[in-house]
UniProtKB/TrEMBL annotation:
UniProt family annotation: Belongs to the phD/YefM antitoxin family.
Domain of life: Bacteria
Protein name: Prevent-host-death family protein
Record InterPro entries: DUF2281, phD-YefM_TA_antitoxins, YefM-like_sf
Pfam families named in the record: DUF2281
Alphabetized Gene3D superfamilies for the sequence: YefM-like domain (3.40.1620.10)
Domain DUF2281: 45-73
Biological classification of the source: Bacteria, Bacillati, Cyanobacteriota, Cyanophyceae, Chroococcidiopsidales
Species per Swiss-Prot/TrEMBL record: Chroococcidiopsis thermalis (strain PCC 7203)
């Protein structure tokens, strides 16, 4: 955890933002009291691309056939 006072934070803002982006906890203090915590925003989600998993899932030909264990219940 990195703590810096408000004056230092204003001089090192880009460095502190970079540290927060890399997962470091950055807290800005004023009069030795925690004031603000820098945390990165979650990355925006990309739009779905249909078909990007094509060929990864294979369904057998007998997928929808009754299971052997349940044949007694099917009649």
């Amino acid at each position: 955890m990195r703590q810096v006072n408000l004056v230092e934070a204003s001089q090192q803002l880009s460095e502190l933002i970079e540290a927060a982006m890399h997962g470091e906890e950055v807290i800005i203090t004023k009069d030795e009291q925690p004031l603000v915590q820098l945390t990165p925003l979650l990355a925006t989600q990309r739009r779905r691309q249909p078909g990007n998993a094509k060929g990864l899932v294979i369904i057998s030909d007998d997928f929808d056939e009754p299971l052997e264990d349940f044949k007694d219940y099917m009649s």
